[in-house]
Design brief:
Elements: H1 2-8, E1 54-55, E2 77-80, E3 91-92, H2 112-122, E4 126-128, E5 133-135, E6 142-145, E7 147-153, E8 161-166, E9 173-177, E10 181-185, E11 192-197, E12 203-208, E13 218-223, E14 227-232, E15 237-243, E16 250-256, E17 262-267, E18 270-275, E19 280-285, E20 293-299, E21 302-310, E22 314-319, H3 326-329, E23 330-335, E24 340-346, E25 352-357, E26 362-366, E27 371-376, H4 379-384, E28 394-399, E29 407-411, E30 417-423, E31 429-430, E32 435-437, E33 445-450, H5 453-456, E34 461-467, E35 471-476, E36 486-488
Organism: Noccaea caerulescens (Alpine penny-cress)
WD repeats: 196-234
Region (Disordered): 1-44, 58-80, 101-120, 482-509
């Protein structure tokens, strides 16, 4: 547990900047951009809708320019660019449906009078939670349960929190909402700074610039309105807008390329590339995927390599050097076999790739040679059997702090999440939950953001979570503080609890 705790709050964590569950009309479309130029925001978040179903249709036909040369790519296998894959069905019975993404405005079901009433009374509302060391009945190992410090309503209504990401120096965190806006807060006090507003459709991914010298205050976002925008967070004004045109929806973006001048965007079933220095489109990869692309990632230690993942069940690897095209620059294809929601890198040299699907399966691949190290088709069942809480209903993300360690973060519909260690060197092995965050959310959790020790340690903070209940929850890692036993909702965003305050229990809504 100590290893997990230190890795969760370590500066090397690949999840320290959050991983949201912003999703598009039928699935999630966010991914991080692990680039020296732009802060890595975690890997793409696929929200797994718990109330609907969706089947990816039969893959008819061929990949246009390669139909004569591509013959047979096996399920859960890899094929080099001179091979092919056959027609098949990639079924997903747990894919997010459009209703969860339709115009979540702040006026949903609430009159202005009711909203004002809630705001006035919010500071009086408190929710008691327990923080304690406990032993899970399914394991002899102790389970860490973090204390909830504060719970902040991002708005009063039916808004969702999609993604939480930090500024490179951790002086601010940005939160994308289902109102198509991005709000900024202090990660230590919860103070509200302001909002970036301009997108006309779902914000699918956000990322701060990682260049602390040249552009420390720049935030980037992509949306289903077909744009990638940059914002100056000092004045909350838009400073750049790249338009995909042709009614394209952009589900993911990543900065990279051999000279770090490329911007890749996942646009419907295409992958578009721009030179971000002049906003000119330099390539359109339209023959490699047959359905919506959920993720794009430039490889961290091989900046000219671009990976894309799609609802069609394929992960494609492109070489982005020179004049980029499907025919000449598609190097290999991995067939996962079902709709892909999220991928991320792990390993000392980032040579491995973890993959979460929309039907809650987990697999580990070597993206360089296409080999599959483990495929856990029953990942959700393994996680559910590994703790005494309710069944795990969905996966929020994976956490790899660097090196070979990997945890999958599972959640319940009631808002409790747990960290489950994955031993992918022994196929089928998943350990008992090593950390539990419960008592803060009452609905599906979309995003988890851990604070590195150098930023949150002094305040005893573990990090932040956001979910479908519209709450931002701040978690404490200091078990000995009396403040751990209380959390509350406030229209002023956060109020420090006096340690001698009497415990009260009130419904937050």
């Amino acid at each position: 547990m100590s290893n997990l705790h230190s890795s969760l709050n370590g500066s090397a964590s690949n999840l320290q900047d959050g991983s949201g569950r912003s999703f598009a009309a039928s699935y999630s479309g966010q991914s991080g951009a692990p680039s020296p130029a732009f802060h890595h925001t975690g890997n793409l978040q696929g929200l797994h809708n718990l109330h609907g179903s969706y089947n990816v249709g039969n893959m008819q036909g061929t990949l246009t320019s390669r139909n004569s040369s591509m013959n047979s790519i096996p399920s859960a296998g890899v094929q080099q660019a001179n091979g092919s894959f056959s027609s098949g069905r990639f079924a997903s019975n747990n894919l997010p449906v459009a209703l969860s993404q339709l115009s979540h405005g702040s006026s949903h079901g609430h009159s202005e009078e009711k909203k004002r009433t809630m705001e006035e009374g919010a500071s009086e509302m408190e929710l008691e939670v327990q923080n304690r060391q406990l032993s899970d009945s399914s394991s002899a190992q102790p389970v860490k349960k973090f204390g909830l410090k504060n719970s902040i309503p991002t708005n009063f209504g039916s808004d969702y929190v999609f993604q939480i990401v930090p500024k490179v120096d951790w002086t601010a965190i940005a939160v994308s909402l289902s109102t198509n806006t991005v709000k900024l807060y202090s990660p230590v006090t919860g103070q509200y700074y302001g909002e970036c507003k301009g997108h006309s459709d779902t914000v699918n991914q956000i990322a701060f610039s990682s260049d602390s010298a040249a552009s420390p205050n720049v935030l980037h976002s992509c949306s289903s309105d077909g744009t990638i925008r940059s914002w100056d967070t000092r004045c909350f004004q838009q400073i750049l807008c790249i338009d995909a045109e042709n009614d394209q929806k952009i589900f993911s973006f990543s900065y990279g390329g051999a000279g770090d001048h490329l911007l890749a965007g996942a646009c419907n079933e295409q992958v578009l590339l721009w030179d971000w220095r002049n906003s000119k489109q330099v390539a359109c990869l339209e023959e490699s995927h047959m359905d919506d692309v959920t993720q794009v990632h430039f490889a961290p230690h091989n900046r000219n390599k671009l990976l894309s993942a799609s609802v069609d069940g394929l992960i494609c690897l492109f070489n982005t050097e020179g004049a980029i095209s499907d025919d000449d620059h598609l190097e290999s294809v991995i067939n996962v076999g079902t709709s892909i929601g999220k991928i991320g890198f792990l390993g000392d040299c980032y040579q491995k790739l973890w993959c979460l699907t929309h039907i809650e399966t987990l697999s580990i691949w070597n993206w360089q040679d296409g080999s599959c190290q483990v495929n856990l088709e029953n990942a959700r069942e393994l996680a559910s059997d590994s703790w005494s809480q309710d069944n795990v209903d969905y996966f929020v993300d994976c956490h790899s702090p660097g090196g070979e360690d990997l945890w999958v973060i599972g959640g319940t519909c009631a808002g409790t999440i747990g960290y489950f260690p994955v031993d992918y060197k022994r196929p089928g092995s998943m350990g008992s939950a090593e950390a539990i965050l419960g008592g803060g959310h009452v609905d599906v959790v979309r995003s988890v953001l851990q604070m590195p020790c150098e930023y949150g340690g002094a305040a005893g903070l573990f990090g932040w979570t956001g979910g479908e209940d519209g709450r931002l929850c701040c978690w404490r890692s200091d078990e000995n503080s009396a403040e751990n036993n209380q959390s509350w909702t406030s229209s002023e965003l956060v109020v420090k609890t006096p340690k001698n305050r009497k415990e009260n229990r009130h419904s937050p809504y």
